[in-house]
Amino acid sequence: MGRSPCCEKAHTNKGAWTKEEDQRLIAYIKAHGEGCWRSLPKAAGLLRCGKSCRLRWMNYLRPDLKRGNFTDDDDELIIKLHALLGNKWSLIAGQLPGRTDNEIKNYWNTHIKRKLLSRGIDPQTHRPLSGGSAAAASGLTSSSTAGFPSQSPAAPRPARPAIVIPPNVMFASAPAPAEDGHSSNSGGSTDAPRCPDLNLDLSVGPPPCSPPNTLAAAASTPTSQQQQQQWATTICLCYHLGVRSGEACSCKQTASPAAAGFRFLRPLEEGQYI
DNA sequence: AACACAGTCAACCGCAAACGC
DNA sequence: TGCGTTTGCGGTTGACTGTGT
């Protein structure tokens, strides 16, 4: 296969990190900054693979992390974002400053799924549970990705810039629940809103390149029809969405201080996926 | 007190995109 | 342009902790 392992497993530590390892990693990153995770462990004197260092830093050691309980508002925001984005934890995390994708993923699997199920909502499809959806009703089968075709291993993920808003979430008023409550949406069909009961106002959003929580605002702020239409065709999720350096969207000049880079996003065309 | 079970969360694994030569 | 390398993401695992019996 030719793919070299990410690290020399025989000479790396695994499992829980020690305080000393944490201190080494923090000290190194404070001195040299993030980057080149592959070579970082050696340079920092850590017997860890780069991936492990990155994960530890991103999920636990980063100084800007907000630890502690999620609020009810956070819950609702996560639910709405999940309805919009599916299991794109990194994107969801980007709308919750101080939270990591791993944290949100865990929180989703341990709390929110249960919460939605108790409300009679399928956590994957965000539709009311119906008698026929036994698999969905179980809800705790974490690999279930109904309604989010990009998760299918058989279907290669499109390039990351194709983060777009599916047409089926562009509803501003509470749509009527699907007749059968569970139509054939496993392939990402666009026949009905994914989570009608949540009344997501997802066609609404601030102008491109607004500050953090753009999407959060987009998920809850009402506005004029004209704006809705405009934003329905131009929704920029450039902030905190894993943008690599050097990438830019056309609205970069609006210069949000926190915006290290931008990515311009188009709405989904028929057949496009997140 | 001891055990079993459930819940939580840090960490690992494999894959695919992005990058760079 | 092709190919190897690096990075990032999402799914899964397993250790740890809390709770019930």
TrEMBL record:
<dbReference type="GO" id="GO:1901141">
    <property type="term" value="P:regulation of lignin biosynthetic process"/>
</dbReference>
<feature type="compositionally biased region" description="Low complexity">
    <location>
        <begin position="129"/>
        <end position="147"/>
    </location>
</feature>
<feature type="region of interest" description="Disordered">
    <location>
        <begin position="173"/>
        <end position="222"/>
    </location>
</feature>
<dbReference type="GO" id="GO:0000976">
    <property type="term" value="F:transcription cis-regulatory region binding"/>
</dbReference>
<dbReference type="InterPro" id="IPR015495">
    <property type="entry name" value="Myb_TF_plants"/>
</dbReference>
<feature type="domain" description="Myb-like">
    <location>
        <begin position="62"/>
        <end position="112"/>
    </location>
</feature>
<keyword id="KW-0805">Transcription regulation</keyword>
<keyword id="KW-0539">Nucleus</keyword>
<feature type="compositionally biased region" description="Low complexity">
    <location>
        <begin position="212"/>
        <end position="222"/>
    </location>
</feature>
<keyword id="KW-0678">Repressor</keyword>
<feature type="domain" description="HTH myb-type">
    <location>
        <begin position="9"/>
        <end position="61"/>
    </location>
</feature>
<dbReference type="GO" id="GO:0003700">
    <property type="term" value="F:DNA-binding transcription factor activity"/>
</dbReference>
<keyword id="KW-0238">DNA-binding</keyword>
<feature type="region of interest" description="Disordered">
    <location>
        <begin position="122"/>
        <end position="161"/>
    </location>
</feature>
<dbReference type="InterPro" id="IPR009057">
    <property type="entry name" value="Homeodomain-like_sf"/>
</dbReference>
<dbReference type="Pfam" id="PF00249">
    <property type="entry name" value="Myb_DNA-binding"/>
</dbReference>
<feature type="domain" description="Myb-like">
    <location>
        <begin position="9"/>
        <end position="61"/>
    </location>
</feature>
<dbReference type="GO" id="GO:0005634">
    <property type="term" value="C:nucleus"/>
</dbReference>
<keyword id="KW-0677">Repeat</keyword>
<dbReference type="InterPro" id="IPR001005">
    <property type="entry name" value="SANT/Myb"/>
</dbReference>
<feature type="domain" description="HTH myb-type">
    <location>
        <begin position="62"/>
        <end position="116"/>
    </location>
</feature>
<keyword id="KW-0804">Transcription</keyword>
<dbReference type="InterPro" id="IPR017930">
    <property type="entry name" value="Myb_dom"/>
</dbReference>
<protein>
    <submittedName>
        <fullName>Uncharacterized protein</fullName>
    </submittedName>
</protein>
